[in-house]
Design goal:
Chain lengths: ~300, ~300
């Protein structure tokens, strides 16, 4: 077990290194420096700026400097916001994004799993059809459309909830729901199909034959086993919520990292783009690693370290 | 009991007297798939919508007298009417025409990006699985590394570098999204590589290239087509997303994503400007999803949920 964890951890470090190198090279492949777009700066000022951000160092030196800084946890200064570092920006805005993401994950799980179980139990009846229709909608309607609809209906027409900003739990409801739409639909579908799978197994028949109540069969025997495939979805779900947050935070004017990322794309703030991409990648890699560790604990049929 | 055999028992039976069993007509793979697909009403509805959209996107803009970029500043932000079916935008451009034109752009992005995925994925996955061993390990490690980070991040980075534009979206989506295809092709081919028909082909001296082209890839085609049809709505979705954060096609061209993001800015005053492009995206996604679900059931029963 320990050997596997170490191996997996080293592997993750290699992946992260590849990501850093790739993104670094991509960002430096842009023709011209990041300041060329600015209105004719005097050459002396330009030179000072380049000195300040070490842009006239050779690429290899910039790269090794960047790597060394990352090892020390420093993602460098922002190009556009004077005197602020990428670390400051992440430290300040990520907690908001984290809160929003957790809200939607909890929402997606709390609604998705019961809906999936219910659909499986009512297989091919009208309840199943309705749920299936809803999940198809959830997959087909882009989150920004959903967000706009929510704003239109709940905030503007009915006046129940705030249209934007981030203050108090009320303002979290609409963005979290809009963000949760897609993962909720996926979790429902996943739960439904794995539940149907489990319900067809022999040990369920055995449990029923023993005379256990329908509730007990479902709760004790079917549900835990049917939830295992849902665990594997956590990785992709985290990635989806993360990228979804770019749009949702922009629409609802939430001061989270996603909105910062989008603004820095507009501003061509390369160090922020670079730093946030690396931060996000590290987050997802960590997430996937944790899922890989937890998975065999829940499902003894899966052996650690074996390729399957 | 003694059986008495007579001379006539040894006569050959006349051909006519044999009752032939009525057999079903021999069907090719695609004919069979088509017949079964036709039974799936939802999938057929999806297919009809997709075909309709393709026709509208191809011929719609040709038939109209107004262009997608024609401005009429006296007619800005008009609601839907007989003259402007979907209303007009803040520059007085007819939204119906713009949505039609957007269909062209969005659908061509979906299709071209999928073809790129197909080509890269099939070649990459095919080579990896076919040679196996170290080659396979290295090639799949590369895929695993790329796969462990959200693809959308790469695509965003690529678009930041390449600058917005239609061709660049093709490139970015093509580079970003072939991983899934490569994995599926590899899995399919690995499972078939050891089967007898490949051995048979090898014994009669077929070259590697021929075995890959004529035997392995055609047998993996079911899963490939299904992945392909699922990747079209994915690409359209991604493009809408990119356009929304300002990395899509450039003005005055407009994909559905651009139209929707323009609609969001004026949502409070003119909700119809968001409604129509959003409706177009959603209908397309639904149609493609239904169609590819049906296609999967028909072509690749193993993947069925």
């Amino acid at each position: 077990m320990l050997g596997y964890i170490i191996k997996r951890f080293l592997n993750a470090l290699v992946v992260l290194w590849v990501v850093i190198t790739l993104t670094f090279l991509l960002m430096h492949a842009i023709p011209g420096g990041p300041f060329t777009s600015e209105k004719n700066l005097p050459p002396a000022v330009m030179k000072n700026i380049e000195e300040r951000y070490k842009l006239n160092d050779p690429l290899t030196k910039q790269y090794t400097d960047y790597l060394v800084n990352i090892v020390h946890g420093d993602l460098g200064p922002s190009f556009k916001y004077q005197g602020r570092t990428v670390n400051d920006i992440i430290k300040e805005s990520f907690p908001v994004s984290f809160q929003l993401g957790m809200d939607s994950i909890v929402l997606a799980i709390l609604i998705g799993i019961p809906a999936g179980v219910f659909a499986a139990l009512k297989r091919n009846r009208w309840q199943d059809r309705v749920i299936n229709f809803c999940t198809t909608l959830g997959v087909a309607v882009p989150s920004f459309v959903m967000a706009a609809l929510f704003i239109e209906v709940f905030a503007l027409k009915l006046g129940l909830l705030p249209t934007a900003m981030w203050s108090g739990w009320k303002s979290q409801i609409l963005p979290a729901t809009a963000l949760a739409g897609m993962p909720m639909a996926f979790i429902t579908r996943l739960t439904r199909s794995s539940m149907l799978d489990v319900l067809g197994q022999d040990y369920i028949k055995t449990a029923k034959a023993k005379g256990l109540s329908a509730f007990c069969v479902l709760w004790r025997h079917a549900l835990p086993n049917s939830l295992i495939p849902v665990i594997t979805y956590i990785g992709p779900m985290a990635a989806g919520i993360l990228t979804g947050s770019f749009v949702i935070e922009s629409i609802f004017a939430i001061p989270g990292l996603g909105r910062y990322f989008v603004t820095s794309i507009y501003n061509r703030d390369y160090t922020v783009i670079l730093g946030v991409t690396i931060f996000y990648s590290a987050l997802i890699i960590l997430m996937n690693m944790l899922v890989d560790f937890v998975y065999p604990l829940l499902d003894p049929r899966i052996k650690l370290g074996k390729k399957g | 009991m003694a059986m008495v055999l007579e001379q006539k028992d040894f006569e050959p039976i006349a051909l006519k007297s044999v009752q032939t069993i009525q057999q079903a007509p021999a069907l090719g793979y695609w004919q069979d798939a088509w017949i079964r697909l036709k039974r799936d009403k939802v999938a057929m509805a999806g297919l009809c919508v997709v075909v309709f959209l393709l026709l509208v996107a191809t011929f719609g803009p040709i038939l109209s007298s107004v262009s997608y970029s024609d401005q009429d500043l006296l007619q800005t932000n008009q609601g839907p009417s007989a003259a402007h079916w979907f209303g007009t935008d803040n520059l007085g451009r007819d939204l119906f025409i713009r949505v039609l034109y957007g269909a062209r752009i969005s659908l061509s992005i979906g299709i071209v990006a999928s073809i790129l995925n197909f080509v890269i994925g099939v070649i990459y996955g095919g080579i990896s699985a076919f040679f196996g061993g170290t080659v396979d390990r290295i090639m799949m490690n590369i895929v695993d590394v790329l796969y462990s980070v959200p693809v959308l991040l790469y695509v965003i980075l690529l678009m930041v570098i390449l600058k917005p534009g239609l061709i660049n979206i093709f490139i970015a989506l093509g580079i970003g999204y072939w991983l899934q295809m490569a994995r599926i092709v590899r899995g399919q081919i690995l499972s078939m590589k050891e089967q007898e028909f490949v051995l048979a082909a090898r014994t009669i001296g077929a070259s590697n290239r021929r075995i890959l082209q004529k035997h392995l890839i055609p047998n993996a085609i079911g899963a490939i087509v299904v992945t392909l049809s699922l990747s079209i709505p994915d690409a359209i979705f991604t493009e809408a997303f990119l356009s929304f954060i300002g990395l899509g096609v450039s003005a005055p061209m407009a994909s559905w994503g651009v139209l929707a993001s323009e609609g969001v800015t004026s949502l409070r005053e003119y909700p119809f400007q968001l409604f129509f492009p959003a409706l177009a995206i959603s209908i397309t996604m639904l149609a493609f999803n239904f169609f590819s679900d049906g296609l999967r059931d028909v072509l690749d029963p193993k993947m069925r949920r």
